[in-house]
């Protein structure tokens, strides 16, 4: 009897809670409308439904776990328009369309938001002083071509996107016609492009992680871009590229780890690129340059374990003071710089640039032998892909620690003992 | 002499052969050295890297060379020394002879592979573990099964052991290097789409290329080949493609053995 009474009380209390939440849901737009200019609207824990419009200065903040679900797919869940000093904090938004659309707003902060199953996360148009931080955007799990962008910013100025996570969207952060933007501490996975910059100026991209996308960082027709200390790894699909620079001017790419990509850095129709102190590791091709000017410089970079280090169709690529793990020269005077130039030119690499169909043969037995012959034959090359001062004493980390792997050791010994027994029985009997 | 006795006899003969013992030492040394050096110098990666390429190339370079030379010289030696003539006096069919030779050769090279893996895992266990994807073992076994059959075929064609050795080296160079160079050279004067079709054709006609392609398919790394081959890869990832894949691989192992029987029959050496 007591148990039944307990269940009855629990069910009643649950239904009461639901009715309260439902009451709150119907009132959210009214609550927004009722909040005074510059006021703070604190949402109590619960689920809210609808599509909402904000046209005033205000802060919406969650007290506990607040979930807001869109009712009209074709409308953004939140529209924020023609206002200034707006903040949304701590909300979880579920929408199969766009979660937040911002138009002509000055001073807006979107922070600690979780956007679920969205077609598109946040869209910002014609705004100024936009700060987006700690936002998590999860797409619907469709192919990137059928998804919208995680965060998209158009014709705006003074933008910061930081510490956010995007998964399964088209472009993690899409930037078009923006001036002064900082993108820092973000992670983008399983999307088309990690970051996509178009027609933008003065961008700083620092400490981000782009992995398992088609392209980690796509910069097109943009100027004054600074890319530092990012981890751009494992873009290993058919057209996987770590960083693509297309028709771009004045780009500095510094201290990044670019690893495991089909192509680490692609430079196309681009001038004044300075790639300094990056680690290009285990890419199929580390750097490719096409139709670019002679002003692009790669200096003090480390090339380890790449199948092809550099390839280019024209001169377009200056190499200086880089470390190459396949450099075979010596350093008699011990100044840390090899006594003979490093020639990165490979016939096969050049063929791949001209005819992509040659990629089939990458690192095949015949190409490996050809590359060895090339290294001898191309030593005379004085212009194309030559580093006159390759580094020789870069401290390279040893990746395996000396410790016993008991499982593997046991299998190894067991196999050897078995082979020995078989051999003895066969040969000695 | 029944089949199992003949296989056992051949297997013992091969393991006693100095040539096979030297080949075993050479293969173990090169395989383990490259595996350990690459694992020490590079971090582990799931993709196709210079590390995986090196190990794959060691298998593609060495296993066909050893199986072709040993298989062909073994059969050619039988005919040259009169051993085959003696075997004809035993109640043993030509099929039993070919199957026995083939099985013994495959077992011998599987033994070499097992030794190499044993040493690799032992060293790897001491130095923190080596990463050797299962696909490598699959490709190595397929190399042994296919090239042992081709080696026996070459042996049936050759006039003597020296001829068999020469033929084996020619076939090895042709399959591993020369056909690829020829295609690459032709590719410089023909349009890309024609080269793509030729490459796909030769991929099926050249067992080395077929097994290299198989590795990419089995390891899920076919994107390495580039977007030009998207349709081909899509096909081989379908159910029908997998059936065709199995059939082509089986054909490469069985067809040389059937041709061997035809050759030996034609030479009038059937019992």
Automatic annotation (TrEMBL), chain A:
Family matches, as InterPro entries: NosD_dom, PbH1, Pectin_lyas_fold, Pectin_lyase_fold/virulence
Keywords: Membrane, Transmembrane, Transmembrane helix
Transmembrane segments: 404-423
Top-level taxon of origin: Bacteria
Pfam families associated with the record: NosD
Keyword Transmembrane helix part of the UniProt annotation: yes
Record Gene3D superfamilies: Single-stranded right-handed beta-helix, Pectin lyase-like
Domain Periplasmic copper-binding protein NosD beta helix: 137-324
Record's keyword annotation contains Transmembrane: yes
Stated name of the protein: Copper-binding protein
Organism classification: Bacteria, Bacillati, Bacillota, Bacilli, Bacillales
């Amino acid at each position: 009897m007591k148990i039944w009474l307990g269940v009855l009380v629990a069910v009643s209390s649950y239904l009461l809670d639901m009715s309260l939440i439902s009451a709150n849901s119907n009132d959210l737009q009214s609550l927004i409308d009722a909040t005074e200019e510059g006021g703070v609207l604190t949402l109590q824990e619960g689920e809210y439904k609808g599509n909402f419009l904000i046209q005033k200065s205000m802060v919406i903040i969650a007290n506990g776990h607040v979930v807001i679900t869109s009712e009209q797919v074709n409308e953004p869940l939140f529209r924020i328009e023609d206002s200034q000093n707006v903040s949304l904090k701590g909300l979880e938004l579920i929408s199969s369309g766009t979660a937040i659309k911002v138009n002509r707003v000055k001073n807006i902060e979107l922070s600690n938001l979780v956007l679920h199953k969205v077609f598109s996360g946040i869209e910002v148009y014609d705004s100024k002083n936009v700060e987006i931080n700690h936002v998590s955007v999860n797409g619907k799990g469709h192919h990137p071509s059928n998804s919208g962008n995680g965060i998209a910013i158009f014709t705006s100025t003074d933008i910061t996107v930081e510490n956010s996570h995007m998964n399964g969207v088209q472009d993690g952060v899409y930037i078009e016609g923006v001036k002064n933007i900082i993108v820092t501490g973000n992670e983008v996975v399983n999307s088309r492009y990690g970051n996509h910059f178009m027609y933008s100026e003065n961008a700083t991209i620092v400490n981000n992680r782009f992995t398992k996308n088609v392209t980690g960082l796509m910069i097109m027709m943009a100027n004054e871009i600074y890319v530092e200390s990012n981890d751009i790894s494992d873009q290993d699909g058919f057209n996987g590229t770590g960083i693509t620079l297309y028709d771009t001017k004045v780009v500095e790419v510094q201290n990044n780890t670019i690893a495991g990509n089909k192509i680490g850095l692609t430079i196309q129709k681009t001038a004044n690129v300075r790639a300094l102190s990056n680690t290009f590791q285990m890419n199929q091709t580390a750097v490719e340059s096409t139709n670019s000017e002679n002003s692009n410089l790669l200096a003090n970079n480390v090339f380890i374990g790449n199948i092809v280090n550099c390839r280019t169709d024209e001169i377009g690529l200056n190499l200086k003071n880089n470390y190459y793990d396949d450099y075979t020269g010596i350093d008699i005077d011990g100044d840390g710089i090899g006594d003979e130039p490093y020639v990165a030119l490979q016939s096969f690499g050049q063929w791949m640039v001209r005819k992509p169909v040659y990629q089939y043969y990458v690192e095949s037995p015949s190409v490996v032998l050809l590359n060895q012959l090339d290294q001898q034959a191309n030593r005379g090359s004085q212009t194309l892909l030559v580093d006159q001062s390759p580094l020789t004493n870069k401290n390279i980390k040893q990746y395996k620690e000396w410790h016993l792997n008991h499982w593997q050791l046991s299998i190894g010994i067991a196999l050897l003992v078995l082979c020995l027994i078989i051999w003895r029985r066969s040969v000695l009997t | 002499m029944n089949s199992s006795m003949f296989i056992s006899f051949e297997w013992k003969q091969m393991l006693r052969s100095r040539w096979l013992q030297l080949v075993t030492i050479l293969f173990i040394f090169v395989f383990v050295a490259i595996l350990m050096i690459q694992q020490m110098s590079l971090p582990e990666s799931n993709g196709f890297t210079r590390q995986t390429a090196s190990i794959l190339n060691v298998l593609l370079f060495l296993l066909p060379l050893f199986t072709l030379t040993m298989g062909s010289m073994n059969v050619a030696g039988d005919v040259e020394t009169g051993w085959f003539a003696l075997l004809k006096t035993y109640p043993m069919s030509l099929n039993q002879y070919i199957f026995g030779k083939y099985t013994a050769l495959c077992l011998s090279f599987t033994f070499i592979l097992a030794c190499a893996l044993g040493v690799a895992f032992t060293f790897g266990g001491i130095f923190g573990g080596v990463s050797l994807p299962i696909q490598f073992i699959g490709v190595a076994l397929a190399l042994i099964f296919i090239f042992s059959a081709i080696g026996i075929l070459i042996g049936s064609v050759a006039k003597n052991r020296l001829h068999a050795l020469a033929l084996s080296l020619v076939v090895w160079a042709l399959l591993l290097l020369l056909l690829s160079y020829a295609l690459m050279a032709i590719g410089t004067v023909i349009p890309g789409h024609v080269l793509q079709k030729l490459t796909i054709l030769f991929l099926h006609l050249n067992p080395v290329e077929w097994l290299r392609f198989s590795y990419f398919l089995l390891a899920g790394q076919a994107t390495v080949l580039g977007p030009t081959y998207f349709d081909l890869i899509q096909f081989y990832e379908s159910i029908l493609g997998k059936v065709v894949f199995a059939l082509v691989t089986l054909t490469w192992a069985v067809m040389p053995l059937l041709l061997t029987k035809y050759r030996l029959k034609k030479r009038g050496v059937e019992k």
